[in-house]
Amino acid sequence: MSDLERTMAASASGMAAQAARIRLTTENIANADTPGYRRKTVSFEAVLDDTRDTRAVATGPVRLDRSELVRIYDPGNPLAGADGSYLGSNVDLVVEIADAREANRSYEANLKMFDQARQMASSLLGLLRR
User: Fold this and answer.
1) Three-class SS state of 123
2) Please, what is the average pLDDT of the chain?
3) pTM reported for the whole predicted model
C-alpha cells in the first residue's frame, strides 16, 4: 500500500470517528430537556493493521455519563414526586456545543488531508501520463 493510500485511509477513518462523535453530540443536545436522559460519550482507539501497514482511528463503545442527574423542582410536572421534583438530564449544553465545534473542526481537518492526498495522487498520475 502506498503512502498516499495510507494517508487517505487514515483520514477516512478519522472522518468516520468524528462523524460518530457529532452524531452522539447532536443526540445529547436534542435530549437535553428529556427527564432522566444520561449524556452519551464515545472514546477513540488507535487501530494498527499489520497486514496492510496502516494506522487508523476507531470509535470505542458508547458509554453513558454516570454523573448525577439534575434534580428539577416543578410540582406541576406529572413526573414530580412527593417532594415536587423530578430528575432531569445531565447534559450541559455549553459542553455539548463546544464538543460539536471541536468534532466539526477535526472532521474538516481530516477532509482536507484526504483531499490533499487525492490531489497528490491525481497529480502523480498526470505526470506519469506525459
Assistant:
1) helix
2) 90
3) 0.82
